[in-house]
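Notes for week 9. Today we move from apo structures to complexes. The key idea is that a small molecule is not decoration. When we ask for a structure prediction with zinc ion present, the ligand SMILES becomes part of the input, just like the chain. The input block below holds both the sequence and the ligand string. Read it once before you look at the output, and try to guess where the molecule might sit.
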Amino acid sequence: MRALVRRVLRDVVDLWLPPHCVVCRSPGAVVCGSCLAPLAPADRVVEPDGTDGSLALLRYDDSSRPIVGAFKFEGRRDVARVFGPPLALLLDGLRPGPVVPTVTWAPTTARRRRARGYDQAEVLARAVAESARLPVRRLLRRSGGPSQTGRTRRERLDGVEFDVFGSPPTEVIVCDDVLTTGATMAAAASALRGAGVARVTGLVLARTPRW
Ligand SMILES: [Zn+2]
């Protein structure tokens, strides 16, 4: 109940106050011009992660880390409003498939979703789908393994598994906030392929330069 009240109050604040920059706190924009300027583009490299290609917008570095952190840990869902449209534009670079792809997300753990009041990957997926005018659907559910945050690389590579809801469409775009080891995206792709999805594309806000 307290979490719900906190969330409702936050929504009221979001509605009635002009945003302040998630990085430097200056008023007026979700991310101000000074904090947007140093953001570096991610390398658009096809990752060996079981997808047909993963697209990333930002390099995950000292400039983008506070933005991702605010999005994940400080309740700043409005970060998705800023980066949804450019992420949608990245999809223009995809080879067109025979069908319209459906956007989904790699869900965070139920515990983290409850604590934060939202799943940042879902918020991002919905913003991307809205901008790209693509259908969006919940397709994945965590089937085990603890959250990725705070775990070693080895643990991260091991622990994530997903189940697929119902019968998925043939082409899917999986959104997530950060691509680090690629383990989460690989697990999502593996589950979707196992359920008959023919083409899986990863789409992330930021990726680490090397891992
Ligand atoms: Zn700023």
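Residues 21, 23-24, 26, 32, 34-35 surround zinc ion (CB under 6 Å).
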